[in-house]
Amino acid sequence: MKIAKIDALEVLDSRANPTVKVIASLDNGLSASAIVPSGASTGINEALELRDGTNEFFGKRVQKAVNNVKALSAGILGLRVDEQRLIDEHLLKVDGTSNYSSVGANATLGISMAIAKLAAKAHNLALYEYLCGQFYEFPTPMLNVLNGGAHADNNIDIQEFMLLPTGFESFKEKLFASAITYHTLKNILKQKGLNTALGDEGGFAPNLSSNEEAIELLLEAINKAGFSGKISLALDVASSEFYKDGFYTYENDKKSYEQMSEIYEKLVNKYPILSIEDALAEEDYEGWKHLSAKLKNKVQLVGDDLFVTNVKLLQKGIDEGLANAILIKPNQIGTISQTIDAITLAKKNNYNCIMSHRSGESEDSFIADFSMCCKYIKTGAPARGERTAKYNRLLEIEHLCKSF
């Protein structure tokens, strides 16, 4: 059960950028590996992703983080693999900062993920059983099928238009109905002469006349696929991306937080939108207070950039009544133990948890198992291998659970 070796190397993520892969081994030869994801739309309070910053590979090499993995392993070798919190606390202590700006969160998370996988193997447990204990559930997928904002090279402000399949019992039914709708949407776009090229997360990325047109297209696809009333909608606005000097430049017009709140209220009243993520900017606390008072009893308001999987920021949001749900991204905070702490605090205060991928992903399905601790999983469209790896893992878990 003791850790004998930790190794690391550079590999490529789904955007063809370098990222960190960590391989941990026990003294009996058992091993497990993990690949760290990378975000494009990032919050200012996220843990630091360390890049080399040299001229090579546009400054995106992660050899420094790889070297730091090897340096960090010195204090971990010989420890029991199931001492996750002790190991994670060691990583934070060695770094010496609150956001891993010394060694890089891509180094610490790679170690933390690999150790968790290896501990589950050592105990002959599925990863979700090891991470969530007895308190697991199958999450409902939130599928980003139309991309805009920082995830696509088009003219749409809102970053993600998602299918939220709520009218089905099993995970398989939810996923397959969404996949059918995804194909139906592609056919509709083709018929309208719109681009069906894909954005970073597998969603289509056409140029449209407005954000509302994107919503109308999704509803048309849902209806044509035969799932009206069974599939609702969710939005990730990623509003920090178009917020500056106290205003939001939305559809080429400057808006105050009051005006943005009115836009969301109209959309929620007009369309079957059940969830809105990052409706306002991460630093716009007055705006969040206004919006939360106005809408959080009508719709799920999700804090991503607002909370960045950080218990201190989440506690501040809880104290001030901001939002009612949190996006969970392990690479925002740096270790699995800190991620679990955020999930625990959220659930204790009746905030829904959404396990989330990043736009730069890999074939690693870690978050699929981890999502069994959450109400939802957000991991892109039902296309591209780095996205379907997560969905297919959940299909496998559901199949295995039904077999017993």
From TrEMBL:
Pathway named in the protein's UniProt entry: Carbohydrate degradation; glycolysis; pyruvate from D-glyceraldehyde 3-phosphate: step 4/5
Residue ranges annotated for the Enolase N-terminal domain, each copy included: 3-131
Entry protein name: Enolase
Family (UniProt): Belongs to the enolase family.
CDD domains, A to Z: enolase (cd03313)
HAMAP family according to UniProt: Enolase (MF_00318)
NCBIfam families: eno (TIGR01060)
Residues that bind Mg(2+): D236, E277, D304
Cofactors that this protein relies on: Mg(2+)
Functional description taken from the UniProt entry: Catalyzes the reversible conversion of 2-phosphoglycerate (2-PG) into phosphoenolpyruvate (PEP). It is essential for the degradation of carbohydrates via glycolysis.
Record EC number: 4.2.1.11
Enzyme category, top tier: lyase
Residue ranges annotated for the Enolase C-terminal TIM barrel domain, each copy included: 135-404
Cited Gene3D superfamilies: Enolase-like C-terminal domain (3.20.20.120), Enolase-like, N-terminal domain (3.30.390.10)
Active site: E201 (proton donor), K329 (proton acceptor)
Cofactor note: Binds a second Mg(2+) ion via substrate during catalysis.
Location of the protein in the cell: Cytoplasm; Secreted; Cell surface
Keyword terms: Cytoplasm, Glycolysis, Lyase, Magnesium, Metal-binding, Secreted
Residues the record lists as binding (2R)-2-phosphoglycerate: Q159, K329, R358, S359, K378
GO molecular function, one term: phosphopyruvate hydratase activity
Catalytic activity as recorded in UniProt: (2R)-2-phosphoglycerate = phosphoenolpyruvate + H2O
Classification via Pfam families: Enolase_C, Enolase_N
